[in-house]
Amino acid sequence: MKLSEKMQRLHTETAFEVLARAEVLRSENKPVINLGIGQPDFKTPPHVVEAAVRALRDGHHGYTPAPGILPLREAVVNDILTHREVSVHPDQIIVVPGGKVVLFFAILMFGESGAEILYPNPSFPIYQSVIEFSGARAVPIPLLEKNNFAFSADEVLNMITEKTTLIILNSPANPTGGTAPKSEIDKLVAGLREFPNVAILSDEIYSRICYDQEHVSLLAYPAIRDRLILLDGWSKTYAMTGWRLGYSVWPPELIEPAQRLAINCHSCVNTPAQFGAIAALEGSQDFVTEMNQAFLMRRDYLVKALNSIESVSCTLPNGAFYAFPNISQLGRTAEQIQNDLLNDCYVATVAGTSFGKYGEGFLRFSYAASLDNLKVAVERLQRYCNESVLRTNN
Ligand code: PLP
């Protein structure tokens, strides 16, 4: 068989490889601590599960309209009004099987040979993979530690050429936990007036997991609303990664092509899951508050503990549930350290380079894990660092 040439350009997510290796070690009874995985270690709230089960019992077994049932899209509209103070029309909402699908659709719409798409680096590896798959050139926006892993608006504006069709932004960010300051977003939006044909995809999947400053949504900027695609969903906010549910907001011009992609790709989202999604948005939000309180406590512990290790330093992440410590002083590549930690210390993390070349010298720690497990992981890392220093000195 001969696979198409574009399949050579489609890559994967190393986090899944780390997960598979961690599972093998666990099956050999090794005491693995998994800080590699990007999903909350909480269970979906029971009232959400109940709503989906009830929908199945009530006979909601058929297809729904491709963008999702109207009560769900209305619930999303109300949620956007509550959390972003922006009014959108239910027709602009397309519910999808996971936020990932939104970026796939947006990149397919704007990516082709000869086009350039700007994307953050380090970032969710699927951006670069799908951009290259589409035939477009993937142009990295460097996210640097010295800027708290936020983009520089001037730098982004300088990177735009006549070939640029789409800019992807992600705040709070995977893998750094960094957030874009409002001042940089203001500056970027002002500068984008010069480039009216460039679309923007704002990946806000971690919008509800923010600590020290409120989430700033790009949807709140009227100047770019006619070319902004918003990605958000239930996966992280309500611990629903396995439900495969996400939503998107499209500007009027892109609703029809987005619906066409949905019809060609998945027809509609799993019907009972859509009922669960309504319950998540309209029910009590205590779960979200409690989960975020747990994440905050873990973040504060982990970042302090990482900074107490001599050869490691870690900036304070403002959002998501990731810490992205600098491990460059250990004298090995991020990938070597990831493998050492997993195979010798049984701590699963993900090398910064899995998220792009600007991730060299860093490791991603997901603190979607209990405080006890985080403590053991830090002890093991401390031991590994001590041994590395001894090895270097000898
Ligand atoms: N965007 C970012 C930045 C992510 O980290 C993830 C998942 O890890 C997604 C999108 C995809 O989310 P979903 O599981 O809803 O497809």
Description:
The structure is a single chain. The chain is globular and about 65 Å long. The chain has 394 residues and is an alpha/beta fold. It has twelve helices and twelve strands. β3, α5 (126-134) and β4 form a beta-alpha-beta unit. The strands form three sheets. A seven-stranded mixed β-sheet has the order 2-8-7-6-5-3-4, with helices on both faces. A three-stranded antiparallel β-sheet has the order 9-12-11. The chain has a two-stranded parallel sheet with strand order 1-10. It has helices spanning 14-27, 46-57, 70-84, 100-110, 126-134, 153-159, 182-192, 252-265, 271-282, 286-307, 334-345, 371-393, and strands at 33-34, 93-96, 116-121, 137-142, 164-170, 199-203, 228-233, 246-249, 322-323, 347-348, 350-351, 363-366. The structure holds pyridoxal-5'-phosphate.
List the helices and strands and how they pair.
Layout: H1 14-27, E1 33-34, H2 46-57, H3 70-84, E2 93-96, H4 100-110, E3 116-121, H5 126-134, E4 137-142, H6 153-159, E5 164-170, H7 182-192, E6 199-203, E7 228-233, E8 246-249, H8 252-265, H9 271-282, H10 286-307, E9 322-323, H11 334-345, E10 347-348, E11 350-351, E12 363-366, H12 371-393
The protein binds pyridoxal-5'-phosphate.
